[in-house]
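Q: Is it fine to ask for two folds in a single conversation?
A: Yes, each is treated on its own. Send the first.
Q: Here.
A: Result:
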Amino acid sequence: MKSVLSDKHFHNEKAAYEFVEKKLWADGRVCPHCGTIDNSKKLEGKSTRIGVYKCRDCRKPFTVKVGTIFESSHIKLHIWLQAIFLVSSSKKGISSNQLSRVLGITLKSAWFLSHRIREAMKDNGFSPLGGEGMIVEADETYFGKKSGGIPETRTSGKEFSKRKGDARIQKRAIVSLVERGGKVKSFHVDRADKATVASIVVNNVAKESHLHTDESRLYTGADAHVAEHHSTNHGSGEYVRGNVHSNSVEGFFGIFKRGMKGVYQHCGENHLHRYLSEFDFRYNNREKLGYNDQDRATALLKGVVGKRLTYQRTAETNV
């Protein structure tokens, strides 16, 4: 079987530009400076870079990289396409060290490249999960030690009665919503209390939906927003009751934590939202929804526009 990574645009720079232009300019070549469509000419010559056009309106030169995560990057475009394919097709992620070895670039470049790709994975569109008769599962989890002081109160607002061990260690809170058989939305929150969780449900779940959770009291504030709210009691060993369960969101958390612990291992709290975007993207473009590795890479490529990430924004802490 022929490997997808043997395709020409993964190894030839001119073919890479043509491939990206075909995907991003499917409705016409757009000038990123003035927005004019199909009113530019290609500049050609021995000293001219690959893929350079000049707009006939604003007279400015541009390439398909301008206004995308590729802008101002010295990494070859065909290397970028290899990285996009590897990140989008690796179920639990691929480390910067691994990308550095596979792509033949420095670790610093691989780390920055992977963060730009995660930025492209971010879903900026708003569409509430669920709908009439549809089920949305909600749950919260905790991953990694949160920066800052030790909290004096629980999420319920009550004081800690016991101070032994790590009972008061502050953990990074994550809330995820999964549409049964559909997509996921994850949120890194400062604190998973009732008001925060209720706000997430209200703003991201359609009112006609059925909400399924565990017995946590955090979701009682969202009851009035959804059509129905059902829960299972994990504390008493009840995980499924008919079609009532939160196994889908638990399964998503399993993939996320295995990837974070086994592949990435270290993650600064200020970057956690980008890793959540990565795992959300792969889950939302998984095989059960009709996507293969090539489809996922294409979907990721179409998300690179308007998401330029400067080095200053990614280099605040090491990961």
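Q: Second one now.
A: Result:
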Amino acid sequence: MQNFRSATVHLPGWTLALLPLSLVSLGLLPLSQPTAFAAPAKVHVVALGAVRKVPYTPPQTAPATGKPADAITLKVRPLTVDGHQKEWTTGDAHDVTDRSFTVRRALRLNDALPGDAAPRWSWQPGPWLLVDRTTGHITALHLPDFDAEVSDAVWFRDYAAYCGTAETAKGGLFAIVAQLGARRAVVQKQIGKWPQPAPASPVCKPAVWQREPMRVTLQPTGGDAITFDVVGASSLVEENDSADDQN
């Protein structure tokens, strides 16, 4: 066995024992710093609450006389994270993966004119949201050419198919297939004119999806159905474990 040498240093009022350097190099001395342990990840509770019926008047049904139109019913539900309400939603949620889902936001807009004495609140369907159940993070989706008054998105995997309206000067009604995480629409084809003097309600029928091969059919109300092949089934959804904006 190797012999370790030690030494003692005598100073006025002090006696210092020098430990062998070999013990230090072998890692036999205890560390003075406390060991840092990673804190456990916070578990979030994401839930959709009970359905509530609220009055809703579609914009295209408002009469030209300026008199209030008869409101129909819009079903809304609160979206809560850890017991705190974050958004109002409407319609069914769609599971994209086992930890994230999409749901449409419901907006409560002030419909009062500048001269009105009090606010005039109006419920309207809004854009779509992507919700991560693990982190509690909510992301507003900016689907291309999505029109809250026209578009009725039908989801399959991480794809949404709907009729959208162009924001260009020429306008137009477009068949759109958007994929989460993609910068551009997977399908974008003009299928009609927009704006229209008296649009049908709804403007388009709900999209119909097919799994293998992946296809989707879109049809304007009163028009011809068009089927598109959707190429590329790999998901572009980013699920970031470190995103935790709800702490």
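Q: Anything structural to flag on that second result?
A: Two points. Residues 42-141 form one domain. Residues 21-29, 62-67, 243-247 have pLDDT under 50 and may be disordered.
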